[in-house]
Design brief:
Layout (H helix, E strand, L loop, with lengths): L3 H15 L14 H11 L6 H12 L4 H22 L9 E2 L2 E2 L1 H5 L1 H24 L5 H15 L4 H13 L6 H26 L4 H28 L2 H4 L12 H24 L8 H11 L4
Antiparallel strand pairs: 1-2
Helix pairs in contact: 1-3, 1-4, 2-6, 3-4, 3-9, 4-6, 4-7, 4-9, 6-7, 7-9, 8-9, 9-10, 10-12, 12-13
Length: 299
């Protein structure tokens, strides 16, 4: 198995190739240059590529076909990027900085940013479908992987979590522990769950393995978001590459539990994630190291 950074480089190369600068002008069948530029701007702005790296690591752990999984990994990063573009919009979090650069709508305008997000989401499934049709012997596996990613990203997953996040911020939904759990699980953990379950399906995992991956990804995602809440309260804008203390009016782990309580929650969730890996044995050491390293992340 590779390191997170090595997986990230594989995904970065695939994304760069997929969205090479389109100089075809307004010819049919090509992405219009203004849209392609806006898509590339956010998609290739850096980042750890953590979700696709975890998908590929799951495939490698289960001795699956990594080359056949690159499309799903790249598509997952495209979906994550679309969510960030839309999350930064004035109607959502109204942020002007992402990964140390001006956000998409600050550079291209709000309308073009919305379209770039829409296009990334749609192209993600286009890429996965193209790849699946080129793998007829394992087509059902790829179809199940796409279903997992769609479920994780849509109304029953990330989008649903974002909806409740907004509803808590603006009044219709009461701020509570149940609401926070829903937001963290759906807005954040679901994409990690989708990543590992998709990788598991592509590699032909059995139900026992899928269940272990699911339990790990849920705990990892909840820990990740709790740590992110702490970073917003305590982090440094220069090192994070985004505004800090912007969630002061939101329902967060820090708002509900305080900083000490949020740190205790991070530790408890790390222990839960490690416990979930028990059935997978030593082959899951990549994921053990990942959750332990993520606990103390600064960016």
């Amino acid at each position: 198995m590779l390191s997170v950074s090595e997986y990230a480089r594989l995904v970065e190369a695939a994304l760069d190739e997929r969205f090479a600068a389109d100089r075809a002008g307004l010819e049919a069948g090509h992405v219009p240059p203004p849209l392609n530029e806006a898509m590339r701007y956010s998609l290739l702005a850096g980042g750890k590529r953590l979700r696709p790296a975890m998908l590929l690591a799951a495939v490698d752990m289960l001795r699956g076909d990594r080359a056949a999984a690159i499309a799903a990994a790249g598509a997952l990063e495209m979906i994550h990027t679309y969510s960030l573009i839309h999350d930064d919009l004035p109607g959502m979090d109204d942020d002007d900085l992402r990964r140390g650069r001006p956000t998409s709508h600050m550079v291209f305008g709000e309308g073009q940013a919305i379209l770039a997000g829409d296009a990334l989401l749609t192209e993600a499934f286009h890429w996965m479908l193209e790849n699946a049709l080129q793998c007829p012997d394992t087509l059902p596996r790829h179809a199940r992987a796409m279903r997992e990613i769609a479920l994780a990203a849509g109304a029953r997953g990330m989008v649903g979590g974002q909806s409740i996040d907004l509803a808590c911020e603006r009044g219709p939904v009461e701020r509570s522990e149940a609401a926070l759990e829903y937001i963290h699980e759906h807005k954040t953990a679901c994409l990690f769950i989708g990543a590992l379950r998709a990788g598991g399906h592509i590699a032909g995992a059995d139900d026992r393995t899928l269940n272990a991956l699911t339990d790990y990804a849920r705990a990892f995602g909840l820990m990740f978001q709790t740590a992110d809440d702490l970073l917003d309260a305590e982090g440094d804008e220069a090192s994070l590459g985004k505004r800090v203390q912007k969630d002061a009016d939101k329902l967060t782990a820090v708002a509900l539990y305080g900083r000490r309580g949020a740190r205790a929650r991070v530790d408890a969730l790390m222990a839960e994630a490690l416990l979930a890996l028990g059935p997978l044995g030593a082959r899951a050491d990549f994921f053990r190291d990942l959750v332990q390293n993520m606990r103390g992340r600064e960016t």
